[in-house]
Amino acid sequence: MCRVGYIRVSSKEQNWDRQIENLSGVSKVFSDKLSGGDGDRPGLSALLSFIREGDIVVVSELDRLGRNNKELTEVMSIIHSKGATIEILNLPSLSGIRDENLRQLLNNLIIEIYKYQAEEERKRILERQRQGIEIAKRKGKYKGRKPMFKRNDIKLQHAFDLFLAGHSDREVEELVGINARTFRRYREKYNVSRKKTPR
């Protein structure tokens, strides 16, 4: 049995210290630093590949594993399918309940409640952001998010060249360092596509 920790912070948070301190006692820690709507989590993918039957995945809070109910359910299903279990440090302790089946049932119920709360909180945050943007637009103060790359950016041009030469979006990410989803958006934005060869 191995206790494996997972840490996720946003690019705005920057600091891992609080989560690392909470995860003392684990034998290995995987981590991700995400920005905005970035859905790629190489650290989590590595953790899911690493864990084996009997392992315990330890996180400080449930929402570290996913930002909405769908993500959480998918990740937890994979963990359980591998015969591993999850320990969420900010959930109430059920160690005093001796009946293992009852303890697992209550644990699952608590997790479902927290998943629902996390989903509802995320919806509220998105709604507040939407309202704030609408107000800023009406006042003429909203300029939108500053684009990461301009059309003539050398790094982006190099990525386009690699793609046109036959590399996949994922290979471009590995070679250039532009996230695959971000690169796909820029390809669509600037209509960069390979010519289809006739059959």
Describe what is shown at a glance.
The chain is of the alpha/beta class and 199 residues long.
Q: Which architecture name of the domain at 3-94 does CATH use?
A: 3-Layer(aba) Sandwich
Strand order of the largest sheet: 2-1-3-4
Q: Radius of gyration, rounded?
A: 21 Å
Choose one word for the global shape. Answer: globular
Question: Could you estimate the helical fraction of the residues in percent?
Answer: 40-55%
Coarse structural class: alpha/beta
Q: What is the count of DSSP helices, taking H or I runs of 4+ residues? A: 7
CATH class of the domain at 3-94: Alpha Beta
CATH topology of the domain at 3-94: Rossmann fold
Order of helices and strands: EHEHEHEHHHH
Word description of this protein:
The model has no long low-confidence stretch (mean pLDDT 80). Helix 1 links the parallel strand 1 and strand 2. The protein is an alpha/beta fold. Among the domains are: 92 residues, Resolvase, N-terminal catalytic domain (Rossmann fold), CATH 3.40.50; 36 residues. A four-stranded parallel sheet has the order 2-1-3-4.
